[in-house]
Write a structure and sequence with these properties.
The protein has a single domain, classed as Creatininase (Rossmann fold), CATH 3.40.50.10310. It is 41% helix and 8% strand. It is built from seven helices and four strands. It has a four-stranded parallel β-sheet with strand order 2-1-3-4, with helices on both faces. Helix 2 crosses helix 7, helix 3 packs parallel to helix 4 and helix 6 packs across helix 7.
C-alpha cells in the first residue's frame, strides 16, 4: 500500500518520475441513518483506495472527507461544502498533481452529491491540463451485479451500503439502532428537497437486512471492478 502522506518528497519524486497515475478518495460527512457513522462515505472510499493500492501499487492521496451534502444538513453532524468551493478545491489538487507529472487520476467518489462538481473538474482537467480524471462510484459500478440485494435495499443508508460499512468498520455500526425508511413525503425530482422532508430517520428503503457477510461480497466485487479500471487506465494514452 502506497500512501502519499506516509512517504518523503524524495520518494514522491521517484514515484512521479516512474508513474503518471494516482488515486484520490473523496467522500462526505453526513447522516447515514441512526445506526451508521457520519463518515460512512469517506471511510468506504478510503478503504477501497487503500486495498486497491495494495493490489496495484498505485499511489493514494489523502482522503478528502468533506463533500456536497446540503440536502442532509438538517440532521446533526452533517458538514457540507458549497459546490463551487468543492469543485475549486478538488481542481487545485488536480493542478498540483499535474505539476508532479500525473496524467491520470482515479477519483473514488463515495458520495453521489459530489458527482456533478467532480464531472466539472474532470472537464476542466481535460481542457486545461490535458489530464484524464476518471470518476468511479461503487454503487453505480455494481448496479445489477449484486443479486443478494433487492432494489429497495440499495438506497442511501440501505442494506447494501450498511453491509459494506459494517464489513469495513464493524465497531462503528450499531445494528441495534437500525431502522428502515420512515417516509414522511413523496419523492419529487424537479426541485430541491431536504432529506428530512422525505424520510424521518435519513434512511431510504430497507436497511435492517444488512450483514457483514453481504458487505464482504460487495467489497470484493467493487475491488475486482476497480482493478480492471486501474489496468485500463495504466494502458490509456491521454494524449
Amino acid at each position: 500500500m502506497l500512501l502519499l502522506e506516509n512517504i518523503s518528497w524524495r520518494d514522491a519524486g521517484k514515484y512521479f518520475r516512474e508513474h503518471d497515475l494516482a488515486i484520490l478518495p473523496i467522500g462526505s460527512v453526513e447522516q447515514h441513518g441512526p445506526h451508521n457513522p457520519l463518515g460512512t462515505d469517506f471511510l468506504i472510499a478510503e478503504e477501497l483506495a487503500k486495498e486497491l493500492s495494495k493490489r496495484t501499487n498505485v499511489l493514494v492521496l489523502p482522503t478528502v472527507a468533506y463533500g456536497v451534502s446540503f440536502h442532509h444538513s438538517n440532521f446533526p453532524g452533517t458538514i457540507s461544502i458549497d459546490e463551487e468551493v468543492f469543485a475549486q478545491y478538488i481542481y487545485n489538487i488536480i493542478v498540483s498533481l499535474s505539476k508532479n507529472g500525473v496524467k491520470k487520476v482515479l477519483v473514488i467518489n463515495g458520495h453521489g452529491g459530489n458527482y456533478y462538481p467532480l464531472m466539472r473538474v474532470s472537464r476542466l482537467a481535460r481542457m486545461n491540463l490535458k489530464m484524464l480524471v476518471y470518476i468511479f462510484q461503487w454503487w453505480t459500478a455494481i448496479s445489477g451485479k449484486m443479486v443478494v440485494f433487492r432494489k429497495e435495499e440499495e438506497g442511501h443508508a440501505g442494506a447494501e451500503e450498511t453491509s459494506l460499512i459494517s464489513y469495513l468498520k464493524p465497531g462503528l455500526v450499531d445494528m441495534n439502532m437500525c431502522e428502515d425508511e420512515k417516509s414522511v413525503g413523496t419523492p419529487i425530482s424537479n426541485y430541491f428537497i431536504y432529506t428530512d422532508e422525505m424520510t424521518e430517520n435519513g434512511v431510504y428503503g430497507i436497511s435492517c437486512t444488512a450483514s457483514r457477510e453481504k458487505g464482504k461480497l460487495v467489497f470484493d466485487k467493487i475491488l475486482d471492478i476497480l482493478v480492471e479500471v486501474i489496468e485500463d487506465l495504466k494502458k490509456t494514452n491521454v494524449e
